[in-house]
Amino acid sequence: MSLRRYYQLSLAVPIVLPVCAYVLFWSLWGKDGPRLLGSITMLLATSVSVGGLTYVLFAGVVLFALRRKSASDFHRYSLIAPVHYAVALAASCILSVLVEVGVGAMADALGAAIFLGVCAVLLGYVYVGLTHVARSALQSAGILSVGPAGVE
Predict the structure, then answer these.
(1) What is the pLDDT of residue 85?
(2) Other C-beta atoms within 10 Å of 64: how many?
(3) Who contacts 86 (Cβ-Cβ below 8 Å, separation ≥6)?
(4) CA distance 90 to 96
(5) What's the confidence (pLDDT) of residue 148?
(6) What ranges in the chain are assigned the alpha helix state H?
(7) Residue 50, class by beta-carbon neighbours within 10 Å (0-12 exposed, 13-18 middle, 19+ buried)?
(8) How far is Cα 26 from Cα 33, in angstroms, rounded to an integer?
(9) What are φ and ψ of residue 2, in 5° steps?
(10) I want to staple 71 with a disulfide (CB 3.0 to 4.6 A). Which of 3, 51, 77, 111 is the partner?
(11) Helices 13-28/106-140 angle, 10° precision
């Protein structure tokens, strides 16, 4: 697999990983599973339920914007993508509160948007870190092909 394709597919990780973790945890243990693992699983599942639609739209825009770019462009963008997603999530939070409740709830909407933005950046960089660690491991194993300049 090319490095560029790897980066394209890695955009699905923030949706696929939480869903798989949730299904696996509940199918193996149900309510009696390890508490820490259950808490992490619920955090990941909640992240998808809160920001999943916004993320799918965001990932679509990223794929479209980088459709003719190299693997090194994907790599560079991955380093700032969590910040861009946090802005998109905060904007969608504010917009949904304005549509559903109105301007009177703007202070609450801003507080929620800041909280969600911070969470999105933190969790986003965890995903970026996992993506880059997995890339290194897959390259070492010879699964990812790298071009002459290490770009593709």
Answers:
(1) 97
(2) 8
(3) 116, 117, 118, 120, 121, 124
(4) 10
(5) 53
(6) 3-10, 13-28, 35-65, 71-78, 81-100, 106-140
(7) middle
(8) 8
(9) -80, 155
(10) 3
(11) 90
What is the Cα gyration radius of the chain?
18
**Who's near 134: CB < 8 A, 6+ residues apart?**
10
Closest CA to 17 of 44, 53, 54: 44
43: tokens are: 């955090």
CA distance 34 to 124: 25
- In the three-class reduction of DSSP (H, G, I as helix; E, B as strand; rest coil), residue 2 is classed as strand
d(CA 16, CA 35): 22
pTM for this prediction: 0.84
* Backbone φ and ψ of 102, nearest 5°: 115, 180
Query: Tokens representing 96?
Result: 């949904």
Query: Contact at 8 Å (CB) between 87 and 18?
Result: no
- Both structure tokens of 39: 């808490």
Question: Count of residues for the chain?
Answer: 152
d(CA 147, CA 41): 37
Count of CB atoms situated within 10 Å of the CB of 147:
13
**Residue 71 identity (one-letter amino acid):** A
